[in-house]
Design goal:
heterodimer; A: alpha/beta; Glutaredoxin; globular; B: mainly beta; eight-stranded antiparallel β-sheet; 8 strands; 7% helix
Chain lengths: 182, 173
């Protein structure tokens, strides 16, 4: 079964688009993240949704938030799709469908490709699922505004200096980002 | 406040106080000194720069590197659009063995070190950071620089202004 809100997303270990083994925990690290499964480069719905994610990338890249995309495409295909999109996040490849089985996300209605069910999960840094979206129907996927709201909620929960440090809180020894204006 | 305490410099003589050092050669084989890394709070020498702490690897194999440094007297903000675009270009391209930006304060981009081995060596000639400042393509002996996981992307920001990109988490993470 795909993880639901409040559950922990499995720490998948898969090859990235360059063929290197990567653990999801290492990719998410200490940041809020959007983890997405997609059918494949050939699906018009995926192409439409990726164009939205690429648009969101301009915000994600300065907001200490991450994106990870997972499919059954082998690394060279994922790399080509990523490059064509202009995506600058990590794509993971599951051509053996091992993680797909673990997640219970095989799209049973496509008996040609046996792809992932399109799904989107917004995660806390410890991979606790904030919200899960079933994207089988396109309108089940999150809008960019919903993703922004999810990233805001998670960031607010995990950043100890969500409220800007003030001279008085600094005097009290509150932690902040070292020398940064996040 | 947590800072990277790993410093890097290209020096003429092997420093006795470095955590690691290895001889360096130009592409044509001409000796070019030693690449050294120190691990300490204080800057070990005036030309040393902070690096991503994960770069140091005593078991690291010989490698080719692109060492980008600003010309003497030239300073550029780390947040300059040119530096932003270079970081995006690094994330967009297939990853090489390692990359770190170089810092000495919280505000300025003071160069980069990109590490490659094998098939990646040829791509050092297209180092995005070399579009900002001049690069030297060098061969570094074993025992200094390792191989890092590629940045997860798409974050181009530093995790604290004294932490060299792409070091990828806040001190409390």
């Amino acid at each position: 079964m795909a993880p639901a809100s409040g559950e922990t997303f499995p720490d998948l270990v898969l090859a990235d688009h360059a063929g290197n083994q990567r653990a999801l925990s290492e990719l998410v690290a200490g940041d809020p993240a959007v983890v997405q499964t997609y059918r494949g480069w050939w699906c018009p719905k995926e192409q439409a949704f990726f164009r939205k994610l690429v648009a969101l990338q301009d915000e994600m890249e300065v907001a200490y938030t991450r994106i990870v995309s997972i499919s059954i495409d082998p690394p060279p295909v994922a790399a080509a799709f990523r490059a064509g999109l202009g995506a600058r996040w990590t794509f993971l490849s599951d051509p053996e469908r091992v993680a797909q089985e673990q997640l219970g996300l095989r799209e049973t209605t496509d008996t040609v490709h046996h792809p992932y069910v399109p799904a989107v999960f917004t995660l806390f840094p410890d991979r606790t699922v904030h919200r899960a979206y079933d994207g089988y129907w396109f309108w089940g996927r999150p809008t960019l505004e919903e993703l922004r709201q999810d990233m805001r909620a998670i960031t607010r929960a995990v950043r100890p200096d969500w409220s800007a440090p003030t001279p008085s809180t600094r005097d009290e020894g509150a932690e902040g980002h070292p020398g940064a204006a996040p | 406040m947590s800072l990277s305490r790993h410093w890097l410099a290209l020096v003429g003589e092997r420093p006795g106080d470095a955590a690691a050092a290895a001889p360096v050669h130009e592409a044509d084989g001409t000796p070019a000194g030693f690449l050294a890394i120190w691990t300490r709070r204080a800057k070990p020498r005036p030309d040393a720069r902070r690096i991503d702490a994960r770069l140091l690897d005593h078991e690291g194999a010989e490698a080719h590197v692109s060492l980008v440094r600003p010309p003497a007297g030239v300073r550029l903000l780390f947040d300059d659009v040119a530096v932003q675009h270079a970081r995006r270009a690094v994330l967009a391209a297939p990853p090489l063995d390692a990359v770190t930006t170089l810092l000495s304060d919280a505000s300025h981009f003071e160069g980069s070190l990109t590490v490659a081995r094998g098939d990646g060596v040829a791509r050092l000639a297209d180092d995005p950071f070399a579009r900002i400042f001049p690069a030297r393509l060098l061969r570094v002996g074993a025992g200094v620089v390792g191989r890092l996981p590629a940045p997860a992307g798409p974050v181009i920001e530093r995790y604290g202004s004294a932490q060299p990109w792409p070091q990828d988490r806040f001190a409390y993470s």
